[in-house]
Amino acid sequence: MKAIEIYNHLKEKGTWVNWNRTCDEFLFGDPEAEVKSVAIGWMATIPNLKKALELDCNLFITHEPLYVAQPNEFGVYTSHGHMLELDDPWVQKGKWMEENNFVVFRCHDVWDDFPEIGIHGAWATWLGLNNMIYSEKFYEVHDLGEIKLEKLVSNIAKRLKNLNQNVVHYIGNPDQIVHKIAIGTGAITNYRQMHRMGADVLLVTDDGTRLWESGQWSEDSGIPLIIVNHATAEEPGVRMLAAYLKEQFPDISIYPIKRGCLYNSMVI
User: Fold this and answer.
1) Per-residue pLDDT, 78
2) Which domain, by its residues, includes 202?
3) What burial letters (b/e) apply to 147-177, b meaning 16+ CB within 10 Å?
4) Last residue within a domain, chosen from 87, 112, 137
């Protein structure tokens, strides 16, 4: 099987994606390469790529970019306008992938909105939320009944331990009773939009909010915020992508590269 066959399958399914303007594309290597085994992870970091290599994978499907850098017409890598030196980790990553004949495909837009088992649906399922009352692109609102904020945060924290997140941050009165939670993922958790959807508690990501702004709004409005890591919120969906592709391509080995929360926490 060739790498392009998985891409074509997802392209056929993802009728909601503008395939002329999407980040879902091959980021490295030859799309026509024969696939030995497939690794799927939230981000194609060197540690994750090395795990894939140990599993005899030569195709890595990533949800996020390889790096925030691009080669110019002279083959020189730049990031945010800064030229990268030859020993820069992102330059070295490209050399490492070339030496090991890796192919990297980004699966982002199609899986973000894949019905039920994509990024957003998998996140709700992992959190144990099953009473959705409203949804729109990037967001869902679920009915909680009546629950104290502190209890809600505790419930969420327990479910995130297996995603490598040991601490959950929140802003608000722990005794406050809340009824409807809005959840989002990625770098787009707009607190005002989530509140307009009828929620009285918002689950946002650290990359999706600016706490100097949303934190002030939370305290001024009395609408609690719960904050988790970007990677944590999308890890369930990435694992579901691996499970889905295993069903679609049963004749090839497909391995989820589990990571979850990018940082560790120390409580003193």
Assistant:
1) 60
2) 119-230
3) bebeebbeebbeebeebbbeebebbbeeebe
4) 112
